[in-house]
Amino acid sequence: xxxxxxxxxxxxxxxxxxxxxxxxxxxxxxxxxxxxxxxxxxxxxxxxxxxxxxxxxxxxxxxxxxxxxxxxxxxxxxxxxxxxxxxxxxxxxxxxxxxxxxxxxxxxxxxxxxxxxxxxxxxxxxxxxxxxxxxxxxxxxxxxxxxxxxxxxxxxxxx
Length: 159
Fold this sequence. Notes:
Layout: H1 8-26, E1 35-37, E2 41-43, E3 47-50, E4 53-57, E5 63-67, E6 70-74, E7 85-88, E8 94-98, E9 102-106, E10 116-120, E11 126-130, H2 137-145
Antiparallel strand pairs: 1-10, 2-7, 3-4, 4-5, 5-6, 7-8, 8-9, 10-11
């Protein structure tokens, strides 16, 4: 039987999805300082960090990404409320709520309901990922590294 191996780009995506699924299954938010999962929040004064980058929900209600202490992105929600928090919704949308639940900012990126993770990467990129439902990424990578055929034709030796 021959295997239909996807392109290297697709394989890398599948492998990344598998790794993300492992994050959902095996890690709590307290064990990772650069991940926020669906339903979790960054309260006023809390942050995610990796390397020189810090993603901060400031006490002035502004969500800011810093690189070595220099602001490189902000939600521009300064003084729009008190006791603000960033929350990753179960539809993948990021929302900043003030006080008793007043929405003051949203990413407008919501999709289907499921498990999502916001990841602050070591290059400063902040990305929201959706968890995969099923993946063979690791299997495909193993097949590629062992030199199996990427042909879609049936293997005459193994019907």
